[in-house]
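Example 3.2
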Amino acid sequence: MPRPNILVTCPPMLGLIDEFAGDFDKHGLNVTPAKVSQVLSEEELVDLVPAHDGWIIGDDPANARVVSAAVAGRLKAAVKWGVGVDNVDFDAFRNAGIPVENTPGVFGGEVADVALTYVLGLARETYRIDRDIRAQNAWPKPSGISVAGRTVAIVGFGDIGSQTARRLLACGANLIVYDPDYRPNSEVPAGTALWPTRLEEADFLVFTCPLNDATRHMFNEDIIAKLKPGVRVVNVARGPVIKEAALVAALESGIVHSAALDVFEVEPLAADNPLRQFDQCIFGSHNGSNSADAVRRVSRIAIDKIAKFLKDRT
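Structure, written as tokens:
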């Protein structure tokens, strides 16, 4: 009986794929590492996925069309690598009888670390200083602001949001939480509010929420007038949580001092994206979870899950 073949389309896992050869072999699996920088297109997936028995999904469009093509081929199981699932049509998999799961609760600390570095980087303009020294042979000394005593609004209080909050409390920040499921507690003292009330209090606005119908474009033109002038914005959630046209307008007006974005509406960030004109901003590459330690841990969870799914179906 031929060994099942597993397609991997998740860039962080692909970056260390040679380390997992023994894990695949232990389960009697072959692996196909996809050639991808961020995501494969729908057309690429329709051509590629049906030739495989299992699929470890990155942020690719695992939609109904792709699932239909995959089921017409060999696909028997899938695992979404990581926490976010907004790109996966779970109903399509379920209707096709294909088991699929994500790997929940695995990256809170790693993404919270990045959120904190972004808050501090915007506060003290350390990234901008580095760029000016390297590119301009300059010696800038912006005064920045302190985080201690400032108010940080955190949107979303799951694993990432709660761990971000703990890090910010250690810096002396005051917190406002936007999450219908948050309940005040002594471990993470914070105020609460319904979006978008109390935004005028926030010196920093940090998005750590999932992408869904309620959060898509929740940062938009309608909230700009509610913001505190000079607010700094961080997004380590999903790109479409922020309507980029509204953020550009807020940056141009000065209402938003600067933004640190690990995610964008369209990735990779286009060369002509108007956000690039703002030197005070910090840009990431949707890489918040990508520490080698976390990648090893989560990739092995994903391999074990896909192996169990396939074993259960034989």
